[in-house]
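User: Can you model how nicotinamide-adenine-dinucleotide sits in this protein?
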Amino acid sequence: MTTIAFLGLGHMGGPMAANLVKAGHTVHGFDPVPAAVEEAKANGVNVFPAGIEAVAGAEVIITMLPNGALVKQCYAEILPVAQTGALLIDSSTISVDDAREVNRLAADHGLAQLDAPVSGGVKGAVAGTLAFMVGGTDEAFASAQSTLEPMAGKVIHCGSPGAGQAAKVCNNMVLAVQQIAIGEAFVLAEKLGLADQALFDVITGATGNCWSVHTNCPVPGPVPASPANNDFKPGFATALMNKDLGLAMDAVRSTSSNAPLGSHAAQLYARFAEQHSDLDFSAIIQTLR
Ligand code: NAD
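Assistant: Here's the modeled complex, given as structure tokens:
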């Protein structure tokens, strides 16, 4: 079993660390928020008063932080004290450029590092069924398997450093466009006198089927567990979708890519997030009515 340092014990990191403890690993945790620390302790994490103390002696160091600036700041602190041969895994959602920068920083200290953002939300973190999209060398990927396994439903090696974050921004740009398109279809159907259930039955059995309708259906009724049945309580909060689309647009700009639908979706979500950042992102249908 492995000694793993886990930095960032929030909504996602807390349950991910708990699953590592359940799998028999020794987990050294740190988070500046006292409530996160208390919950982690209750789940069997050995909590330390600072990140640099948590990483001392750890064979694997996982970060699950809110953004790239914090990941870079955290790496600047912990890299000088990480033990020789330690593997770093960053599961935060950050830009491809930041992911490549922290990978280079780790390499400068002689340490292997992977970007391994996740999909599946808090539910997947609790259940240990997250999808990990991993960027890094074959050797580092192979050595991460036993650490990722207790937290994962699926682990995909996407390529070299930054490739995991690249996959994450591309996937979420598709998701944003699809959720808007499905919302537009339900609003148009309502105006044409078509019942929500009839449209749901047709789309889910036809070529328009996608997660945004078969699981995250934006009208109440057809999918009882979708956020539309619960005042659009997330689910996947608009604030997080807006953050991910910001990263996608940075990537579009830095590569001079052409993404007219993704760019428009990013504008619509940025506007929606100004007032409704805490609602599930499927609530964007409300702006279409
Ligand atoms: P969160 O805000 O609940 O947790 C982040 C935690 O990091 C906080 O508890 C914060 O106190 C802690 N932190 C900040 N600086 C730290 C430091 N230097 N050392 C240790 N801890 C520090 O956020 P979350 O929802 O858990 O998301 C974490 C990451 O996962 C984000 O990058 C997010 O975009 C991504 N993500 C979230 C979801 C989701 O559904 N919540 C899904 C997929 C990906």
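A couple of observations from the model: The longest strand covers residues 152-159. Residues 166-287 form a domain with the N-(1-d-carboxylethyl)-l-norvaline Dehydrogenase; domain 2 fold (CATH 1.10.1040.10).
User: Helpful, thanks.
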